[in-house]
Amino acid sequence: MKNKEVTRKRKSRSHFKELVQWLTPGLGVKRWVLLILFGTTFIGVGIALYALDVYRNAPDTWWLPYLSMISLRAFPRSIRIMIFGGIGLIILISGIWGLSQAVLTPFVKPGSVVVDTLTGYRRKERGPKIVVIGGGHGLATLLRGLKEYSYNLTAVVTVADDGGSSGRLRESLGILPPGDIRNCLAALSSDEEMMTQLFQYRFPVGNGDLEGHSFGNLFISAISEIVGSFEDAIAESGRVLAVHGKVMPATLHDVKLVADILPSNSTQEVRVKGESLIPMTKGRIRHIWLEPNNPPAYPSVVKTILNADLVVIGPGSLYTSILPNLLVPDVLEAIRTTQALKIYVCNVATQPGETDGYTCKDHINVILEHCGDKLFDLIVANNHYLSNLAENMEWVFTDLEELQEYLVYQADLLDEEEPWHHSSEKISRVLIDLLQERTGPLIE
User: Fold this and answer.
1) What is the C-alpha to C-alpha distance for residues 393 and 294, in angstroms, rounded to an integer?
2) Are 56 and 159 members of one domain?
3) Are residues 324 and 433 located together in one domain of the fold?
4) Which residue of 360, 381, 405, 430 has the fewest C-beta atoms within 10 A of its own C-beta?
């Protein structure tokens, strides 16, 4: 019996706490409660005036004594006001709480509390404006972590991809490559379950022309044909996946990535055209550029960067994901001009065919050689090297003596299951903490 009583009291306190949480500032609920309260009050006043008129003017009948009892006429007027007002308030709050549970519960994940879900949504809705520039697995990992802190996210991705499913669609349909955009949309999805798995599904060997294609790539391509523009297709795909944030191409122009590579057994540079061919060509990449040169940026990208609180460059493939975005002149100029905190996130491991043997300093030098200086305020790098890496990979070591001219923040950023990748939770927490150190608390 005692255990049942304790359980009952705990449930009672839990319900009361949940009711109080609905009054938390910023939820946007109290204004509507007050509006309902005012409306109910006016209705109550109207009914009371009518009842008072009937009571005063009606002839003596058998029900008048009962009406006097119901109206608590034996008590002083102030006591009656408190009693009826209290009962009405309890009924009103109970009705609003029950209505909210009935309406919102079907849209809340099982096991979640409605008010907690609403509180989290409002907090993220007012979160900092963050722009992440990169591509591939690294960008998707970062977005997956940052969406837990803010919904004001924008991913800027390259459109120079010409390999795999994206390359085939680019060649056959003449559209911009959707691969990196698909990965970012999936990472920003509020429900990374069945719909996201479907979006990321890749047709296996033996499916004819569909072999190797991603369903998401085909979906974006189809939407692009229907709505008539690639950028609108991205927006429509985001609605399907219930995305919180935006994904934008750095440019809407059809560009190709070109590199001069110095083979290890030669003194003569080789020119390679195509993003997919660059990592496959053995040698050291000396220089890369876009063709056609100086493509105009997607206008919304420039505006978003200028209005951002935080701009993050990386992580991702140095030559084939990060630099293609920075080689769009308007994007580069917007990064220089913005008042946002600009952070470069260095990769935790080298990438075969691109950055073999590179240190953190090497990564930075490559960016500065292609883009010039004054590009970022802070460098974030991993300092945990105890796990085993995949074949042909090495750690990207950070020598603070080599980086004395930069502000460098080091931490354990590794994903325990795939140590050659960042942990989405660790890196996003570090970035938010660094932003708050500069600007003060942006997230309540």
Assistant:
1) 33
2) no
3) yes
4) 405
- Whether 120 maps to a domain, the answer reads no
At 379-429, the pLDDT tens digits run 999 999 877 787 788 999 999 888 888 899 999 999 988 888 999 999 999
Residue 409: CATH number of its domain: 3.40.50.10680
Helix (H, G, I), strand (E, B) or coil at 299: helix
Amino acid at 413: L
> Are residues 168 and 235 both part of a single domain?
yes
Q: What is the DSSP code string of 361-398?
A: HHHHHHHHHHH-S---SEEEEE----SPPPTT--B---
How many structural domains are present in the chain?
2
Rounded to the nearest 10 degrees, the angle between the axes of helix 136-146 and helix 424-439 is 60
- Regarding whether 56 and 147 lie in a shared domain, the answer is no
Could you read off the pLDDT of 24-63 as tens digits, one per residue?
Answer: 665 566 677 677 777 777 787 777 777 667 666 666 655 5
Contact 243, 189 (CB under 8 A): yes
For the chain, list residues with pLDDT below 50.
Answer: 443-444
Q: How many CB atoms lie within 10 A of CB 255?
A: 23
Same structural domain for residues 141 and 96? no
Q: Please indicate, yes or no, whether residues 97 and 189 belong to a single structural domain of this protein.
A: no
Cα separation, 243 vs 237, in Å, equals: 9
pTM for this structure?
0.76
What's the pLDDT score for residue 113? Answer: 63
